Amino acid sequence: MDNGVQLYLDLLKKTLTNVIYEDPSNPAYPTGPADPRPHGDYDPTRRAGGEDWPLTAHTMVGLKRLDNVQECVERVLADNVPGDLIETGVWRGGVCIFMRGVLKAHGVHDRTVWVADSFQGMPQVGPEGRPRDHRMKMHEFNDVLGIPLEQVRENFRRYDLLDESVKFLPGWFRDTMPTAPVERLAVLRLDGDLYESTMDVLENLYPKLSVGGYVIIDDYGLRTCAEAVHDYRDAHGITEEIVTVDKFGVYWRRTS
């Protein structure tokens, strides 16, 4: 790889995660017995592993999961795997901004980055919802998680990465995924937390993932998400090895 390309992408990752200015973690980040440490001060270990909600950074996934995104995107480019890139659940847009940055750094202009989100936070799920989702109270944090579409667009613009190769899919996944105008995907990245959100995306978009493409699951560390992943894989006979990225993220490469 050209040294200038790698320098740009490394700087982009550091900027998107804000490890340069070290903004604090939002104290609203939910913790439990497995992680009782109080949030507030910047913690480089947490930031690298995507284990906090930064106050100002444009992504919460951390450096390790951005490294994984770069690896997957560059591999499909090197192997000429056809298709676009998508993230479902984008928060402030940082991962999609990085995807567009990787494409632009490599001079790729014939792939779209799809940015799919409700742009109003997480849905409230009642007892009639999918298994265990009714126990998830993520909607209680929508003042942190609900980032308006125009703010995400503005974040792209600030990096000079808002162009015709970026397209937005606003709305709940149950409504947008069945009719999403996506023809073929090379990288499918899910960050929806809930069973329902994860299953809605897999059922509608995994069939569009090219052989040789990657599916990345950001919230595999959450029981609701992991259950949806395994239910879908079992139902469709998917046996590719699930590779761990960090505490929360995993991925696999489609081989058939």
TrEMBL record:
Ranges for region Disordered: 23-53
Keywords, alphabetical: Antibiotic biosynthesis, Magnesium, Metal-binding, Methyltransferase, S-adenosyl-L-methionine, Transferase
Xref: SUPFAM superfamilies: S-adenosyl-L-methionine-dependent methyltransferases
A Pfam family this chain is assigned to: TylF
Keyword ATP-binding included in the entry's annotation: no
Gene Ontology BP term (one): antibiotic biosynthetic process
Pathway connected to this protein: Antibiotic biosynthesis
Single GO term (MF): metal ion binding
Compositional bias (Basic and acidic residues): 36-50
InterPro entries listed in its UniProt record: SAM-dependent_MTases_sf, TylF_MeTrfase
Family: Belongs to the methyltransferase TylF/MycF family.
Annotated protein name in UniProt: O-methyltransferase
Organism expressing this protein natively: Saccharothrix coeruleofusca
Gene transcribed to yield this protein: cloP
